[in-house]
Amino acid sequence: MIAKRIIPCLDVKNGEVVKGINFVSLRKMGDPVEMAEFYSHNGADELVFLDITATNEHRKTVIDIVSKTAEKVFIPFTVGGGVRTIDDVTELLSAGADKVAINSAATENPIIIKDASLRFGSQCIVVAIDAKRTADGIWHVMTHGGKKDTGIDAVEWAKKVEGLGAGEILLTSVDCDGVKNGFDIPLINAIVSSVSIPVIASGGCGHPQHFLDLFEHTQVSAGLAASIFHEETFSINQVKQLCEKNGVNIRNDRFF
């Protein structure tokens, strides 16, 4: 069985790490390079860096910060935000990213997933899906920082991106984001059961127990969180210790 991963996320705006609730009410958390280096040395299995306003501001990801961050981390490093073309993917991989996450552009031009996976390998291509529950009980794909409802069924979209060659899905619950009441288990199970590629679950973690619940009640490959780590409420090692104590196969090569 493949070991579960614990992944901190750096949502970056104007060169600073920020965090909000339901994708709004953002507050500053710190310097992305310094925070990335800290996580790299303190138990993170991977790191996700998202330039969260790049798409709405019609610009590319801040390459200089990505490059500086990549120099400081020694774990797999995924970068997303404002990725629209193959050239954008090339630029981020050249700047030091190990994987590139595509979100809004993929819904508008799905062929970019296929083209990117064929050129760079599916292991480099992550499709980020921000999903929000609708009144009729299904989940729609949200883009542009959670502001635009595409009307696309999130489960069907997950199946499609897998077929196009995505190597991994980064799934965020817009409803649970920043709320700290736990991961959106029904959403996660709906997506995980529909695909065979790894899924990283994001949105709602407020306590190490939420990671344990995630791994015990879903077949997700990894859990991602921001607030509890950024605010130093809990450490990554505390999460890993709880999971290991309860029988979860968790990555622990260096930190126990």
From TrEMBL:
InterPro entries documented for this protein: Aldolase_TIM, His_biosynth, HisF, IGPS_HisA/HisF, RibuloseP-bd_barrel
EC number of this enzyme: 4.3.2.10
SUPFAM superfamilies assigned to the protein according to its UniProt record, in alphabetical order: Ribulose-phoshate binding barrel (SSF51366)
Protein name: Imidazole glycerol phosphate synthase subunit HisF
Pathway: Amino-acid biosynthesis; L-histidine biosynthesis; L-histidine from 5-phospho-alpha-D-ribose 1-diphosphate: step 5/9
Organism: Heyndrickxia vini
Root EC class: lyase
GO molecular function, one term: lyase activity
Active-site residues, record numbering mapped to chain: D11, D130
Protein role: IGPS catalyzes the conversion of PRFAR and glutamine to IGP, AICAR and glutamate. The HisF subunit catalyzes the cyclization activity that produces IGP and AICAR from PRFAR using the ammonia provided by the HisH subunit.
Catalytic activity: 5-[(5-phospho-1-deoxy-D-ribulos-1-ylimino)methylamino]-1-(5-phospho-beta-D-ribosyl)imidazole-4-carboxamide + L-glutamine = D-erythro-1-(imidazol-4-yl)glycerol 3-phosphate + 5-amino-1-(5-phospho-beta-D-ribosyl)imidazole-4-carboxamide + L-glutamate + H(+)
Keyword Protease: no
HAMAP family, sorted: HisF
Major subcellular site: cytoplasm
Pfam families: His_biosynth
Compartments (UniProt record): Cytoplasm
Protein family: Belongs to the HisA/HisF family.
Keywords attached to this entry: Amino-acid biosynthesis, Cytoplasm, Histidine biosynthesis, Lyase
Binding partners and assembly: Heterodimer of HisH and HisF.
